[in-house]
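Dear support,

Our group has been running a series of protein-ligand predictions, and this particular one with fe (ii) ion is the one our PI (initials K.S.) wants archived with full inputs and outputs. We had some confusion internally about which version of the output was final, so please treat the block below as the authoritative record. The input we submitted was:
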Amino acid sequence: MPAAATELQAAERGRVLGLIGDHRANWSLQQEFYLDPAIFALERELWFPRQWVIVAHASEVPEKGRYIVRKLFDEEIIVVRFGDGENDIAAYYNVCTHRGSRICTKDGRGRLLVCPYHAWSFRLTGELQTKQDLPEGVDPETLGLHKVPTRAFGGLVLCGLDRANLPDIEPVAAGLTDRLREHGVDNARIVVRKSYPTMANWKLVLENFLECYHCRPAHPEYFRVNGHVKVTAMRDAGQAAVWQEEVDAWHSVIGDAEFNKGVWEPGDLDTMPFAMHRKPIGSGRKTLSDDGGPVSRLMGGRTDYDGGESGFRIGRLSFLSAPNDYLAMFQMIPRSVNETDVVITWLVDRDADVDVEAEKISWMWDVTTVQDKIITEDNAAGIASRAYRPGPYTPLESQTAFFIETYLSQMKALITGERAATASTEWEAPMQLFASPKAACPAPRH
Ligand code: FES
Ligand SMILES: [Fe+2]
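Confirmed final output from the archive:
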């Protein structure tokens, strides 16, 4: 890099470190973190490459040769099933090694991946197949597709941008595969997928997703249906006691083994965070639907409804909600400094009736996410004003505050290269989320 560019980069990083230094703990971020393209560029360089994210459900590439074109942050990738094994799924940057053309423009199927420009073809395992036109001395082995780190487990396909920077995903696979199977994630099919492009910085989208303080004013349907809002949306001792009674009653019905299922790994820069927690939906509701009644076939080999909902967190940008008879898979995809795609995929058991009603299955999270898009875009619009100043997170926004503190300490560590202890080492699982205190125990470190 020329000296002038290096100086510019150092000055830029110094400016961001200054902003991090000025941050007031447990208050929202300064305006620049939500609006400044230079900070987004720094995240793209330093933070995004460290994140594993869900890019697909395994059923989207059901047999060898099937491939799909998906987004990974602001990159386009090809996800392909290259073999007959359950987890034989790979991903490649959608960039030809000849002169750089996109290779696949839509989902498809084939024995080879063929570039439309000059018809170079690549094996499903990425190697260049076309060799006859190469100039002498060029080794075809060096012209395989650019691999994207990929790991499939429990029905999910996860990718990350850069092998050198990604944390080990094996503890997550080890910690969650059985739990995902118990919820039928590996045996599911997609009913509907919707995208909610949100004109807001990705951190605002996450800040909103991680707290339920807004659930009372912003989500009348969600507030009506979910019992946990008695402790996650309000600070009211009476309501908390009512919720505790409901949790205790649920515990006595489902038994200790189910009740204590759960895992919490807060993660740090080198450890991928993941969690699963269970709680009752409440008020005798069987599933997360408008009237509480079933919407599809029971999943994961269940023989009866227990009225619980399991929540999965996989890394920092992917989530899964699992009531007894459907799944909602969430992908938060940062696109630019002020654009984030929220993609929700609803799945049911593979053997569920073909005419399951997508509207009933998607009702809860669709109505809620349409509302979230509006409030988050309003949040972004207000932050763009000259009048914006950081404001305090309340105790009901503790997970949001934790995310922000973690983000800042990680950005600082990545800029300076110094691995100070991150905020996450002091973080305990948010008790409101876990019906069972045992469920909040940290996952064993591997
Ligand atoms: S750019 Fe792909 S074959 Fe030429
Ligand atoms: Fe919300």
